[in-house]
Amino acid sequence: MDLTKPLAHRVRPTKLEEFVGQEEVLGKDKILYRTIKADRLTSLILWGPTGCGKTSIAKVISNTTKYKFIQLNAVTAGVADIKAAVEESRNMLLNPAGKCILFIDEIHRFNKLQQDALLPFVENGTIILIGATTENPYFSVNKALISRSMVVKLNPLTYKDILKILQNALKNPAGLANYNIEIENDTLEAIAKLSAGDVRTALNTLELAVLTTQMDSNRCN
Fold first, then answer.
1. Beta-strand relationship, 150-153 and 127-133
2. Parallel, antiparallel, or unpaired for β 127-133 and 44-47?
3. Would you list the DSSP string of 68-86?
4. Distance, CA of 32 to CA of 153 (rounded, Å)
5. CA-to-CA distance for 138 and 45, rounded, in angstroms?
6. Residue 95, pLDDT above cutoff 90
7. How far apart are CA 35 and CA 40, in angstroms?
8. Per the confidence metrics, is the pTM higher than 0.85?
């Protein structure tokens, strides 16, 4: 694990059992949990606020699926990138499955032309689309894509969820375990409450606190 990367990236869950929160859609009896576990995904639109776990769900899927997983960010990608992903998906030598999962972060930033370019490949099954958005997809995503996708509404993470994630980060070797930190639970609770449901903000705050505190006594309080 590259320890120069942000803490939120390093401690991102890699499998369903590690995911904390969003029980409404990822509980063991819920359809999204079952489809990911069985690798029987249809196209998805993950809709929710910043730091609620959209990219983490995509990461879990990338580690679960037998299909090739390609990730794009709508801020920097365009039609050419979509076409390249399709060609990669169709390359039977490199991808015998003949289809791929294409994760597009911030899909609401794609214009109509870019979204239209996805449609035929979603329709014929070459691409299983996973789009992540903070905007209401019923207003920001092509209606034809919406009709071919499962829209999953995600909520801000609860205070208890974020507190658990912070505690896990302190014990995770890829996170902050090597710092041998002692931190008062009141401090973790304050970070969790101030994050307002955004786990990325909470983890960034914790990391900043650790990295800017004198570590002579291995304490952060």
1. unpaired
2. parallel
3. EEEEEETTT--HHHHHHHH
4. 11
5. 10
6. no
7. 5
8. yes
CB atoms closer than 10 angstroms to residue 83? 12
Residue with tokens 């009709």: 147
CATH number at 121 reads 3.40.50.300
Structure tokens at 198: 């955004």
Q: Are residues 186 and 134 in the same domain?
A: no
Question: Mapped to the 3 state alphabet, what secondary structure does 130-169 carry?
Answer: EEEECCCHHHHCCHHHHHCCEEEECCCCCHHHHHHHHHHH
Query: Residue 105 pLDDT more than 50?
Result: yes
Give the C-alpha distances (Å, rounded to integers) separating 105 from 46, 49, 183, 214.
Answer: 9, 13, 34, 37
48 and 135 in a single domain? The answer is yes
Length of the chain: 221
User: In this structure, are 175 and 204 located in the same domain?
Assistant: yes
Is 45 within a domain? Answer: yes
